[in-house]
């Protein structure tokens, strides 16, 4: 028997119906700072037979040439600031994330070696940063979630944001997992359940967190690197096998954007930063929430 869900109207209203532009209307550059010939990497400028390459245009080349002013910091043309649990920029921004010998979080916000969110000054979006502790908490990076968006709002109106199929309810593994018999007051291990739980605790002082659209999640992909394709100095929490069969966590992160087939949604593989339009909504994968910065 399917699990009947009653999801708050405010949560459903926050789910984007389609892929949208980032809040500021500006786009990040790709992070690509190399040029290529048909067979090899080529030093700047463009090789004569292959002109107009990505690395020669936009914010990345401006950074390379020392002509890009940033509010924060970040690889290539990216411009990020680290935010504390209260949603304010950390006083110390130039320190690396601290981990112990087992890879668990060991830093502090006071020292600038741990942060809760990242603000993107280009797109105007705030991004969640996941945790990693010996006893996994609500936002631990190891948890996984299926894709779920209720087919109907509490007021009876249709919810077009799910593409015609609500997806897989409670198919992941997460903190305080719901079970009808053993844990009826638990949390649903799916995207809608996670959004609801994070908003309830007020991550970074806010309660309007949501699933990112495909375009929004792609905006933080750093195509100048891989394994993972993201600025790990700002986002040290990306899980994935990355070629290691001993790590069981998939390197797949959900977006909130439905795909062409109603039982699928867009996801993003952070190994290379590849968007995938045919991921079954029942798959248990990672989630990174987003909100519009003030």
From TrEMBL:
Pfam families: Lcl_C (PF07603). InterPro entries: Lcl_C. Keywords: Signal. Residues 1-22 form the signal peptide. Residues 151-162 have a biased composition (Polar residues). Residues 117-291 form the Lcl C-terminal domain. It comes from the Bacteria. Residues 151-176 are annotated as: Disordered. This is Lcl C-terminal domain-containing protein. The lineage of its organism: Bacteria, Pseudomonadati, Pseudomonadota, Gammaproteobacteria, Lysobacterales.
């Amino acid at each position: 028997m399917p699990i009947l869900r009653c999801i708050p109207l405010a949560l459903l209203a926050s789910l984007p119906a389609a892929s949208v532009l980032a809040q500021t209307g500006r786009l990040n550059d790709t992070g690509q700072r190399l040029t290529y010939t048909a067979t090899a990497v080529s030093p700047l400028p463009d090789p004569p037979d292959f002109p107009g390459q990505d690395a020669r245009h936009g914010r990345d080349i401006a950074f390379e040439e020392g002509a890009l002013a940033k509010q924060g910091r970040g690889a290539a043309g990216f411009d990020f600031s680290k935010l504390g649990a209260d949603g304010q920029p950390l006083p110390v921004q130039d320190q690396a994330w601290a981990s112990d010998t087992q890879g668990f979080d060991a830093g502090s916000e006071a020292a600038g070696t741990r942060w809760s969110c990242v603000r993107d000054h280009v797109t105007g979006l705030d991004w969640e940063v996941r945790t990693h502790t010996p006893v996994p908490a609500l936002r631990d990076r190891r948890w996984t979630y299926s894709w779920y968006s209720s087919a109907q709002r509490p007021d009876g109106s249709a919810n077009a944001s799910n593409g015609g199929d609500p997806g897989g309810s409670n198919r992941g593994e997460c903190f305080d997992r719901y079970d009808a018999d053993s844990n009826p007051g638990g949390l649903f291990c799916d995207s809608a359940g996670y959004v609801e739980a994070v908003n309830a605790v007020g991550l970074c002082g806010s309660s309007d967190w949501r699933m990112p659209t495909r375009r929004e999640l792609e905006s933080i992909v750093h195509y100048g690197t891989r394994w993972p394709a993201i600025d790990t100095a700002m986002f040290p929490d990306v899980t994935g096998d990355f070629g290691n069969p001993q790590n069981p966590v998939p390197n797949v992160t959900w977006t909130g954007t439905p795909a062409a087939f109603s039982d699928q949604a867009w996801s993003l593989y952070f190994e290379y930063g590849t968007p995938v339009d045919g991921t079954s909504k029942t798959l248990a994968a990672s989630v990174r929430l987003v909100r519009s910065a003030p």
